[in-house]
Amino acid sequence: QVQLVESGGGSVQPGESLRLSCAASGNIVNIYGMGWFRRVPGKQREFVAHALSDGRTHYADSVKGRFTVSRDSAKNTVYLQMNDLKPEDTSIYYCNLRLIEDGSASDYWGQGTQVTVSA
Fold first, then answer.
1. How far apart are CA 94 and CA 21, in angstroms?
2. CA triplet 87, 13, 65: central angle to 5 degrees?
3. Distance CA 37, CA 30 (A)
4. How far is CA 91 from CA 38, 39, 83, 111, 113, in A?
5. Does 110 have pLDDT greater than 90?
6. Whole-angstrom distance, CA of residue 38 vs CA of residue 52
7. Helix (H) or strand (E) holding 64
8. Which of 73, 71, 70, 74 is nearest to 82 (CA)?
């Protein structure tokens, strides 16, 4: 029973910032990584950023240089600092936890938090 709880979404103007957080709880043993995806109606879910347990981070080209993903391993929490937000960043953001269970990857998802960027 893995649970992810997200917070930090909201409505901002272009150029402003938001910081999302996601805390994981439950039967968590071997974390491969934690990260963020987003989805708008009519489009596929899009990778945003993730932080792997080996220390690597990766970003979608659309957010590179503006967003920063980080993890607090002791708290099983991942953050997404979003700077210089643009209208095209408007989406529901979903926290992702990828575990290695029995040698295979298993993905767990939060309920999503709305980010709206508009003038």
1. 10
2. 60
3. 21
4. 6, 6, 15, 13, 8
5. yes
6. 18
7. none
8. 70
C-alpha count within 13 angstroms, C-beta hemisphere, residue 106: 13
Query: Which residue type, as a one-letter code, is found at position 4?
Result: L
Per residue, the 3-state secondary structure of 66-97, as one string, reads CEEEEEEHHHCEEEEEECCCCHHHCEEEEEEE
78 closest CA partner among 93, 63, 95, 62 = 95
Positive/negative CA dihedral, 29, 109, 77, 52: positive
Tell me the residue type at 20: L
Report which of 10, 12, 13, 26 is spatially closest to residue 99, judged by C-alpha positions: 26
Average pLDDT, the chain: 97
Q: Tell me: the pLDDT tens digits for 32-82? A: 999 999 999 999 999 999 999 999 999 999 999 999 999 999 999 999 999
Query: Taking Cα atoms as reference points, which of 20, 21, 14, 24 lies closest to residue 99?
Result: 24
**Nearest by Cα to 82 from 65, 61, 57, 97:** 65
